[in-house]
C-alpha cells in the first residue's frame, strides 16, 4: 500500500481555543481533529515575549505529535507584552484590573507564534507581531468591562473581537493575530508544506 499524499493527511489543531477554530473556518479550513496540548505555559525566568510564544507553540505541537503520526499538526500561542512585561491570562478580576490599567493609554504588542509539524516530521515555527494602541480608560470603563467576564481566559485580559473593540484606537499589523491566530501566515505555512484544505 502506498503512503497517502500530504494533501490527504489529516490536520490536527493542537488547541482547545474556539477562537482559533473560528478563524480557521473563516478561511475554509476545518481541522480533522482537535487535540489540546497540556503543557506548562509559565514563562521562564527572564524570557522575552517572542521567545516565550515560539517556545510554547513548538512545545504544544510536539506534545500532540506524540499522539498523532502522519498528520499535519498546527499549534499556536499568543502573548501580550507591555514593554518586556508579559501579560498572561489573568488569574482573577483583580489581576485583570491591573492589566487593563497598565494597558490604558499605551501601545503594547501582541505576539502569536505558530508551529507546524509536517507528516514527514519536520517542524517550522514562526512568530508574528501586531502593535495595539489602547485609549485612555476611565475607571467606569474598566469596571464595566470586567463585569462582562469577557476578560477570563484572555491574554492581557481583553478580547479585541468583543466588547474591548471600543477601547482600541489603532492596530499596526494583523488583526487576526490579536484574536489569536495570524491567518495570512498560517495559510501560507500550511500551503507551503503541502496541505490542501
Q: Your description of this structure?
A:
The chain is α/β, with parallel strands linked by helices and 197 residues long. The protein has a single domain (6-192), classed as Maf protein (Alpha-Beta Complex). 31% of the residues lie in helices and 24% in strands. The protein is built from six helices and seven strands; from the N terminus they run βαβαββαββαβαα. It has helices at 18-26, 49-65, 93-103, 139-147, 175-179, 183-192; strands spanning 11-13, 33-34, 72-82, 85-87, 107-117, 123-134, 168-172. Strands 1, 2, 3, 4, 5, 6 and 7 form a seven-stranded mixed beta sheet that branches. Strand 1 (11-13), helix 1 and strand 2 (33-34) form a beta-alpha-beta unit.
Computed CA radius of gyration, to the nearest angstrom:
17 Å
Q: Report the uncertain regions.
A: none
How many structural domains does the protein architecture include? Answer: 1
CATH architecture: Alpha-Beta Complex
Determine the strand fraction and express it as a percent band. 15-25%
Please state the average pLDDT score.
Answer: 93
Q: Which CATH top level class fits? A: Alpha Beta
Q: How would you name the oligomeric state of the polypeptide chains in this document?
A: single chain
- Characterize the main sheet: 7 strands, mixed
Question: What is the CATH topology descriptor?
Answer: Maf protein
Number of strand elements: 7
Q: What is the element string, with H for helices and E for strands?
A: EHEHEEHEEHEHH
Q: Kindly report how far apart the N and C termini lie.
A: 24 Å
Structural class of the secondary structure composition?
Answer: alpha/beta
Task: Provide a count of the helices.
Answer: 6
Report the principal-axis shape.
Answer: elongated
Q: Percent range for helical residues? A: 25-40%
Amino acid at each position: 500500500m502506498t503512503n497517502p499524499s500530504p494533501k490527504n493527511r489529516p490536520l490536527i489543531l493542537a488547541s482547545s481555543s474556539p477562537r482559533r477554530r473560528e478563524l480557521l473556518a473563516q478561511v475554509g479550513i476545518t481541522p480533522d481533529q482537535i487535540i489540546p496540548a497540556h503543557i506548562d505555559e509559565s514563562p521562564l525566568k527572564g524570557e522575552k515575549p517572542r521567545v516565550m510564544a515560539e517556545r510554547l507553540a513548538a512545545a504544544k505541537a510536539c506534545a500532540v505529535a506524540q499522539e498523532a503520526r502522519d498528520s499535519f499538526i498546527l499549534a499556536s500561542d499568543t502573548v501580550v507584552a507591555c514593554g518586556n512585561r508579559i501579560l498572561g491570562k489573568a488569574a482573577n478580576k483583580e489581576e485583570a484590573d491591573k492589566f487593563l490599567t497598565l494597558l490604558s493609554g499605551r501601545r503594547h504588542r501582541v505576539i502569536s507564534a505558530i508551529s507546524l509539524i509536517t507528516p514527514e516530521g519536520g517542524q517550522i515555527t514562526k512568530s508574528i507581531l501586531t502593535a495595539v494602541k489602547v485609549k485612555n480608560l476611565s475607571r467606569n470603563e474598566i469596571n464595566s468591562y470586567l463585569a462582562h467576564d469577557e476578560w477570563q481566559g484572555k491574554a492581557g485580559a481583553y478580547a479585541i473581537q468583543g466588547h474591548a473593540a471600543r477601547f482600541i484606537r489603532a492596530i499596526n499589523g494583523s488583526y487576526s493575530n490579536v484574536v489569536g491566530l495570524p491567518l495570512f501566515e498560517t495559510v501560507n505555512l500550511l500551503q507551503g508544506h503541502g496541505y490542501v484544505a
